[in-house]
Prior knowledge:
Oligomer: single chain
Radius of gyration: 37 Å
Amino acid sequence: MKGKNQIFRTFVALYYNKMKEKTSKILLKCLWLITIGPVVALAAALLIVGLTAEIPSFEELENPKSFSATKVLSDQGEVIASFHIENRMYVSYEQLSPYLVKAAVSTEDARFYKHCGIDFYALGRVAFKSLLLGDRGSGGGSTITQQLAKTLYPRDDTPDGFISHKIAMVKIKLKEWITAVKLERNYTKDELVAMYLNAVFFGSNAYGVKAAANTFFAKEPSELNIQESATLVGMINKPTRYNPAINYDLSIGRRNSVIRHMAKEGYISNKLRDSVINEPIELRYSVQDHNADKAPYFRDMLRRYMSASMPKRSSYSFTEDYENDMRLWDEDPLYGWLNKNQKPDGSPYSLDKDGLVIYSTVNAKMQKYAEEAISEHLGTYLQKEFFKDMKNKKYKPFAKEATPELVNTLMSQARRWSDRYRSLKKSGMSDKEIEKTFNTPTEMRVFAWNVKGFIDTTMTPNDSIKYYKSFLRSAFVAMEPGTGHVKAYIGGPNYRYFKYDNARQGKRQVGSTIKPFLYTLAMQEGFSPCDKVLNLPVTFVLENDTWTPASTDKAEFIGKEVTLKWGLTKSSNNISAYLMHQFGPKAMLEMCRKMGIYTYLPEVPSLCLGPADIALYDMVSAYNTFPSRGIHIEPIFVTKIEDKAGNVIATFSPQKHEAISESAAYLMVNLMQGVVNEGTGARLRSRYRLEGQIAGKTGTTNDQSDGWFIGYTPKLTAGIWTGAEDRTVHFESIALGGGSNMSLPIWGLFMQKVMADGTLGISNNDIFTPASGIKLNLNCDGSDDDLQTYYHQSQDEEDFFD
Length: 802
């Protein structure tokens, strides 16, 4: 019995040992499956995704398709405008504040410099804490490189079903891992962190760290301190929640959390951490939308110019306008540039997406001085006078001669052109319902000449239309003699509220500013400033009638001999009529064409008084011929264009032709100096105390609807138009509504600032270069001291047009 038990125990022991060995093998296999299986599965999944999914190629990695803003630079390299869908401008690693990099790495990816795109240690930590310990605050496992991959190559839409959605998300995540590894192989760590900060959206229309630094702190990324860097990095994942302009308390708490991370990772000392945590966030917040550009009217004009299509005759009312645009299409490579040129891959260029750099001729200081001059004159003086002038008008703001029928027509047009009307019409409202809406008081924000630039008020939409019609607008253009470079360009008083461009897009009656072209014809044909004519009314015999221009001269001068210089100085209609009678409308029209006025002009005797509608831009271009010594230079406002990579893809140079003789140009300078020294432009001397050589001409149209002044010094030509949107909105008296009161003061204020600057190369010592061989008494008083003979002696004169 004892032997049997022993045998049984031996058998059981053998069986147990065998089972134990078998179990151990099973357990070992399971252990291998648990540890190696996921790695194999992951590798297989990565292989399958790599073979089947659309992974960015290395070429695509070199050129990620994120939209870049096009920059417009001033003549000194300052950004004055931009075109964008996403307000994004790229900066290199060297242009980043070191604190930005440290804040981003310590907060978003502390092991950034230790992994190769995927941080398996962080993934393991997240899995352990989230899945096993249920800690949802354990943070994410995505590296900076993975986040960059996700931003540069956005995820596709995923299916709605639970299972299919989860499968798609796994596939997307694996795709991002592969892309991250490729990025790590393709770029250095410094390049990757710069790309990441350039790609992030910071809210407030700020794409990328450069736009964010400009928007929140009015700084460049390289200028940001610890607090500012931490504030921006803290916004990365939740740009609205941690926006300091919206949620200051949440933002400062998040900023301090970033600063603590920087100290924890050893990027700053604990002492510095404790110091800066107590500092407030000092914002200089300004959303960088198109309204905030330094030259918004110029930007819009540039877009229209570069986007122009080949002209079609059916799109034009006047043949002359069609022919002029056709001339630009054929002769100016910038006109329609976007439709004439393609990228290397054959696709069209986009101002909003391709990150071009456009080098303009605009001077940022002159642009600023012009805007200030308009604001000072309109905001502190002229608009107040106009509101006073409106008080006794029956149909405010329309002039006294406006009939009810005309007022109704103008208001009806304004309603139909408004965004409100189009929106209501689109929603299905009847005209009667829309009319009721326009008469219903509504809370709104409207423009005002105050510190804020607006007021919040309640008024009916109809009253808001009248309110805006009551504001006078001014346009300003400045050009450089000899080069044709446009130095300043403003289309209205405030771009946010008055989008229409009155500088080049709008055309208004020019009044007496057209008279110098008629006098130029006389100088070209052998007349001189001191030639005398009899000051009498002149009658023109028309086809079925006669026309005698109304005299603007005092009675004491009628019937007297006066010089041509006197005639232009006093803007005498009689003398202009005399010259028109001598040369005829056709000769004057041809002179205007030579000097760059290509728009429609009526070939009639009254052309001598300026009834034609011409753009300020064209008038300044024509006047620029005088200080350019008779050479008309087509205005140029872009010198070159670069692509996103810095390659020059287009260059531009001015087009020139001799419009008038050098002697005729100089005689006209002398004639127009008389206007400033003792004529309608004399307040430039008396009120604005401008010294040095200045020439110019004022202009006023019928009923004071338009006030003009165009003036020039030896180194700068500038012109201003001022008026209301409707020609029936105007001053009742010429004392207030004349060009010498509406526009000349803006020129005076602008030139005061330019002369005082000292860095623009313009001073009171500049002189007009005399024409060679002239021997004339240009002061018209007969004294021998005034006889002047001039000869070219200076090499500077020969270089003037180089």
